Amino acid sequence: MYDCIVVGSGLAGSSLATVLSRQGWHVLLLERRHLPQHKVCGEFLSPEAQAILGGLGLYDTVAHLHPATMDMARLTTPAGLHLHVQLPGQAWGVSRFALDAALLAAAAEAGATVRTGITVTGTTPTSSGHIVAARCGQDQLTFTARAVVVACGRNPVPALRPVPDAPRPTIAQTHIGVKCHYTNLAMPPQVELYLFPGGYVGLSPVEDGRANLCLLTTHAAFTAAGASAEAMLAAVCHWNQALARRLQEGTFLPDTQVTVASVDLKQRAVPWNGVARVGDAVTMIPPLCGDGMAMALRSAQLCAPLAHDFLRGACSLAGWEERYRQQWHRTFDPAMRVGRMLQAALIQPGVHDMLLLLGNILPPLARTAVHTTRATR
Ligand SMILES: Cc1cc2nc3c(=O)[nH]c(=O)nc-3n(C[C@H](O)[C@H](O)[C@H](O)COP(=O)(O)OP(=O)(O)OC[C@H]3O[C@@H](n4cnc5c(N)ncnc54)[C@H](O)[C@@H]3O)c2cc1C
After folding, report:
1. More confident residue, 164 or 207
2. Closest residue by CA, ligand 1 atom 9
3. What's the 47 CA to ligand 1 centre distance in angstroms?
4. Closest ligand 1 atom, CA of 293?
């Protein structure tokens, strides 16, 4: 029997597995994919993430990937309005291809048993802990552990959803994300956000001189554009000519392109449902704020000492649940509220021009808006 099974090896899962393994616990980390692989993400690691990585003992792991650096954000509307906002510190640009693999390797190095290509299908409580059911190809597997932490991000299997029987949003209420890399684009140390009706495109430098392009849009805008990543990007370039001009210099790298559908930005936050949940498995953090990865790391940082206390018998399961729920809501609720409002406003035509004008007249307002979306500051 393991002390703890962690489901999913994104930032939240791998970092939690690393911390618990370093404390001497017998940890199993289960991941459905084989890494490295590309993932839909803007790959903008906010300034706040570095302190959290330090607290988790993972700063060097990420610094060794030679992330690109950024200290400004530049927003551009289809009408050509710009807003420059100073970031609250230096952000990093690092591909999920490299980052997720490095964090998984750190967990293994810390002593966790890591198994990839295994999809967890459910967990059942027992008198001594949990039975975790999983699938590996055609094989059905079971594992047992005293504790389980779900870190499986968005869109997990039904049994791992925050509230399995809650009504799911209709497809029209969801968003679609696309990411790809470019080479040969001159990238100043800034993240560039190009707004369009129904979404935005982020362009930011990552390691090895590449640029990450990441697009998030409503299902309606994606369908109206032609229902493919290529058609959507062509439509965005038509709306926002500044992006079209920007991309002309670059070379698109087709093998880096990935798309994700059914992104639910309104899901209720559920930090505990039978077992602890960390990262996006709690709720989807508004991507435009570029803080989802820091928040995934921060939730693992909140959960780790409580899991440790439970495993060493210093608190009950109910005590772990109560303290984690309280800490999660206290830490993330205010930033989630502002982030969701800001994301919804910035993709509305007319509203984004007004907000950018306001930000140009009152630069401290723009900085405050960025600041209040940070749960991890
Ligand atoms: C379009 C878009 C752009 C974004 N841009 C940014 C950005 O620029 N900066 C930022 O900070 N955040 C960004 N985010 C948010 C960020 O990607 C997430 O907040 C972050 O990845 C959450 O990390 P996580 O570890 O919780 O989940 P994930 O990174 O999703 O990891 C979950 C892992 O669990 C695995 N898994 C899932 N189900 C199972 C299962 N049943 N069994 C086993 N394994 C399973 C998955 O394969 C995956 O590896 C963006 C999100 C989107 C959609």
Report:
1. 207
2. 290
3. 18
4. 11
